[in-house]
Amino acid sequence: MRVQQVRNIGALEGNTPVSVNDWETVKRGGDAAIKKWIDRNFKYKQCVIVLVGEDTSNRPWVRYEIEKAYNSNRPIFCIFIHNLKCPINGKSRKGTNPFDIFYFDDGMKLSSFINCYDPSSDDAYNDIARKMQSWVDAAITQRR
Question: What span, in angstroms and rounded, lies between the C-alpha atoms of 118 and 78?
Fold first, then answer.
C-alpha cells in the first residue's frame, strides 16, 4: 500500500506505476521471470529508489536490485516509508536500512555512502512529493 502511494505521487517524469496485479503475475513466473522483469525495468532508469518499509531489508529481490544498481554504477538512495498512512493499518514501524547488510572489503557498510531519507512524520506523503526530484538529483550527482 505505501509503495503504491509513493509510486502514484507522480513526482518523477516517466515513472509509470506498477500495479499489484502485474507484480503478482511476474512472481508466479518464478525466480527467472522476476530477475528478467527487474533487469528489463532497470534498462532505461537513471536512478534507483529503494522504498524502505518494515520488512524491506529481508526481501531477496530488494537485495538483488541494490547489488545490480551499485554494480552497474546507477545512482541509488532510499526513502523510509513507515510514516505514510495506510488506510487499514495507519503508520508502521521503521524498517532497517537495507544498505547496512552490504559490506566492502575494508569493513565499511554501503550505508555509509548511500543517502537514506526519513520524511516528516507529520506529512510524509507531501514531504516525499516535494523532495523526490531533489533526492534523485543528489543521488545522480553523488554517483558521478
Answer: 9
Q: What is the largest CA-CA distance in the chain?
A: 44
* Amino acid of residue 21: N
Tens place of pLDDT for every residue, the chain, 144 residues? 777 777 777 655 555 555 567 778 898 999 999 999 989 888 888 899 999 988 899 999 999 999 999 999 999 999 998 888 877 777 788 999 999 999 999 999 999 999 999 998 889 889 999 999 999 999 999 887
Number of domains in the chain: 1
Q: What is the CATH number for 124? A: 3.40.50
> Are 131 and 119 in contact, with CB atoms under 8 Å apart?
yes
Scanning the chain, the segments in alpha helix (DSSP H) are: 2-7, 20-28, 30-42, 60-71, 124-143
CA-CA distance, 86 to 4, in Å (whole number)? 11
Q: Taking the model in full, what pTM does it have? A: 0.85
Domain that holds residue 63: 2-143
Q: What 3-state DSSP class applies to 109?
A: strand
Q: Extract the C-alpha cell encoding 125.
A: 506523503
